[in-house]
Write a structure and sequence with these properties.
- There is one protein chain.
- The chain has 107 residues and is mainly α.
- It contains 3 helices and no strands.
- Keywords: Membrane, Transmembrane, Transmembrane helix.
């Protein structure tokens, strides 16, 4: 059984696999939505706001989820550094979306 081969620290392996599965689903959904927005931008080039919404979405969901998995796996960055990087990406994403909406790019 696969769960017998998974080693976790401070959590049940099933919970860790569940969290990883949810992260994968959120990344796939956000990339899919961003692809639809980019396709719309390419089709109607005048709606640049669609491109900026896609960029904001990628920084809001995709990049932070990838950082949450990749940083502890591939680097020695601690939880504080990881939190700062993840929160920074989320703020960039939210800022981009708010900038697009309030600047009137979607009209």
């Amino acid at each position: 059984m696969l769960v017998g081969q998974v080693e976790t620290t401070g959590s049940d392996p099933l919970i860790a696999l569940g969290v990883l599965a949810l992260s994968v689903v959120s990344v796939v959904l956000s990339v899919t939505i961003a692809a639809v927005l980019i396709r719309g931008y390419r089709r109607w080039g005048a709606h640049r706001g669609m491109l900026w919404l896609a960029v904001g979405l990628i920084f809001l969901i995709t990049v932070p989820e990838l950082l949450r998995v990749a940083l502890p796996t591939a680097t020695d960055i601690g939880s504080s550094g990881r939190s700062i990087l993840v929160s920074g990406c989320e703020l960039i994403g939210l800022g981009t979306i708010l900038w697009t909406v309030y600047r009137g790019e979607m009209q």
